[in-house]
Amino acid sequence: MTLSKTLAAIALLAAGAAHAESHAETGNPMVGGAAMFPEMNIVENAVNSADHTTLVAAVQAADLVETLQSDGPFTVFAPVNAAFEMLPDGTVETLLQPENKGMLTKVLTAHVVAGDISAAEIMKQARASSDGFYHFNAVSGDALSAQVRGGNVYIYDESGNAGRVTIADVNQSNGVIHVVDTVLLPQ
Question: pTM for the full model?
Answer without folding.
Answer: 0.84
